[in-house]
Amino acid sequence: MSLNFVFIGAGNLATQLSTAFQNKGFKIIQVYSRTKESAKNLAGSLSTNFTTSVQDINKSGDIYFVATKDAVVDEVLSQIDFNNKLLVHCSGSLPLSVLEKYSENIGVFYPLQTFSKTRNVDFNEIPIFIESNSEKNEELLIRIAKQISDNVSVVNSEKRKLLHISAVFACNFVNHFYTIAADILKSKDIPFEVLKPLILETAKKVQEMEPEKAQTGPAVRFDENIIKAHLNELNEFVNYQQLYNSISKSIFEYYKK
Amino acid sequence: MSLNFVFIGAGNLATQLSTAFQNKGFKIIQVYSRTKESAKNLAGSLSTNFTTSVQDINKSGDIYFVATKDAVVDEVLSQIDFNNKLLVHCSGSLPLSVLEKYSENIGVFYPLQTFSKTRNVDFNEIPIFIESNSEKNEELLIRIAKQISDNVSVVNSEKRKLLHISAVFACNFVNHFYTIAADILKSKDIPFEVLKPLILETAKKVQEMEPEKAQTGPAVRFDENIIKAHLNELNEFVNYQQLYNSISKSIFEYYKK
Predict the structure, then answer these.
(1) Fewer CB within a 10 Å sphere, N or C end of chain A?
(2) What percentage of chain A carries pLDDT values higher than 70?
(3) How far apart are CA A159 and CA B164, in angstroms?
(4) From the candidates B116, B206, B235, B253, which should be mutated to test the interface with A, based on the most A CB atoms within 10 A?
(5) CA–CA separation, A47 vs A28, rounded Å?
(6) R_g over Cα of chain A
(7) Closest Cα partner for B187 from B221, B124, B134, B237?
């Protein structure tokens, strides 16, 4: 497939996705970002052009991938004439319909993963969720997705939103808990290092067991002495103390069913 | 080292630790548990003896490892005469001093990991934290720990309690969030499977980056539209809705610093 892509957005997702596409032979002809540094860096690493001006967005793209913060999608797209070219966003939470105003050919290309600019990920196993307004566009997006991943499926906007919420729990909130753990350890000068094998094993465990069955720790054992002692110990971290309390209660409630 | 161990407790930790010891040539001469099935199963897999009666606990052990629920430690130990043999507990939260009543030779042997009976773990990288009431006992426990792990250190009871609290966040609460994510997906018949690459990558990321810098998602981007939409979507999961809200706030607060 010889297709020319334009990337609108140059953040974590745009960086990783455009790189994965280029590695499979797709051509990224331009990167747009409002932030010059981001646009320049990504274009540089892809050896392509960049612009920070919506007026200069290249008209000859076959597909326009929108990978900006959800909050600015409308603001950016409303300034561009896509001439009914295929316009695709990569957001978990935005419905397909947000693109209807801007082109007659629209789609969603949502890779379910956490991306950072500096950490390369193997797209092969990343689930990619496709949605489109026509069978022809859907088929094209599926074919493209299958070039970079073995795990491609079609879902509607409603299911995708739920996927995104579940990902917030399983990734964003999880990572915040890693941060909290690191913060607690720091108060006694203990390096975060000590938690790494535990963190990895916790994630590996649920690759094979249902998480419901993998649960360990004082809350699922209803060990109230430990919970009280821990809450007491967290007196100097009031915010973490409240979280400890409400999550322990949530575990209690889940398992008393 | 030719040493005879007695295990008091036959749960997740006892199962994995006694097996690791036996694999390195230590002899487990007996397993005690109040639950016959647990005692029998573990003794069976170790090809050793078991008892469910404190009166029948073997007097010829060199070290007695206590790996029961914290809440029952006192109840069980108060019925046994250890004849001042080395008595060691494996708890993150109990101080060393809880053992003072029961022997003149006491210690702590705390492997920082999540254990399940059916999932074997490689002890090699698991941090093991040692504490004891004498240099001689401490040295012996360190030597034993080094037979099964490359990551052995000495910490006092106060630091160990904090290690345990951080592990509750980084493992137990994290796993509960995997469960919540699975539960949310189930409501739309989406298999948990789709989250596995994300979960693994989230854990792998912090093996190399500080968790603080690995944070992604709507909360750290201050994307209030998405957060509102997610909270709205969670109307049918009131408990998860509250957690979503308080953790998003915690992320806000952490990064606005």
Answers:
(1) C
(2) 99
(3) 37
(4) B206
(5) 9
(6) 22
(7) B237
pLDDT score of A2? 85
CB burial class (10 A; 0-12, 13-18, 19+) of residue A27? Answer: middle
In the prediction, which pLDDT does A147 show?
97
> How high is the pLDDT of residue B223?
85
Rg of chain B taking only CA atoms, in angstroms: 22
Band (pLDDT 50/70/90 cuts) for residue B222 is confident
Report yes or no: A64 and A86 within 8 Å, Cβ to Cβ: yes
The C-alpha atoms of residue B197 and residue B191 are separated, in whole angstroms, by 13
**Could B170 and A181 be called an inter-chain contact, meaning their C-beta atoms sit closer than 8 Å?**
yes
Q: State the pLDDT confidence band at A11, using cuts at 50, 70 and 90.
A: very high
Q: Which residues of A touch B198 (CB under 8 A)?
A: 112-114, 167, 170-171
What single-letter DSSP state applies at residue A59?
Answer: T
Q: Which of A197, A111, A103 is nearest to A147 (CA)?
A: A111
Tell me the C-alpha distance between A144 and A128, whole Å: 11
Cβ burial of B159 (10 Å; 0-12, 13-18, 19+) is middle
Q: Are B35 and B8 in contact (CB under 8 A)?
A: no
Provide the whole-model pTM: 0.94
Residue type, B90: C
Query: In this structure, what are the phi and psi dihedrals at residue B25, rounded to the nearest 5 degrees?
Result: 95, 0
- Cβ neighbours of B206 in A, within 8 Å: 175, 178, 192, 196, 199
Question: How many residues are given for chain A?
Answer: 257
* Helix, strand, coil content of chain A in percent (nearest 5): 55, 15, 30
Using CB atoms within 10 Å of the CB of residue A254, give its burial: 0 to 12 exposed, 13 to 18 middle, 19+ buried.
Answer: middle
CA dihedral for B51, B57, B61, B67, sign (positive or negative): positive
A217–B170 CB contact, under 8 Å: no
Sign of CA dihedral A151, A156, A162, A167: positive
Q: Quick one: how far is CA B151 from the chain centroid? A: 16
How far apart are the C-alpha atoms of A14 and A36, rounded to whole Å? 15
- What's the Cα-to-Cα distance from A40 to each of A20, A31, A43, A80, B11, rounded to whole Å? 18, 8, 5, 20, 56
Between the alpha carbon of residue B185 and those of residues A110, A111, B179, the distances in Å are 16, 17, 10
Q: Which of B122, B151, B159, B226 to mutate to test the interface with A (most CBs of A within 10 A)?
A: B226
The least confident of A127-141, A193-207, B206-220 is B206-220
| Sign of the alpha-carbon dihedral angle for A93, A96, A100, A106 | positive
CA pair distance A60, A56, nearest whole angstrom: 11
Q: Return the C-alpha torsion angle A218, A224, A225, A228, nearest 10.
A: 100
Question: At residue A90, what are phi and psi to the nearest 5 degrees?
Answer: -120, 25
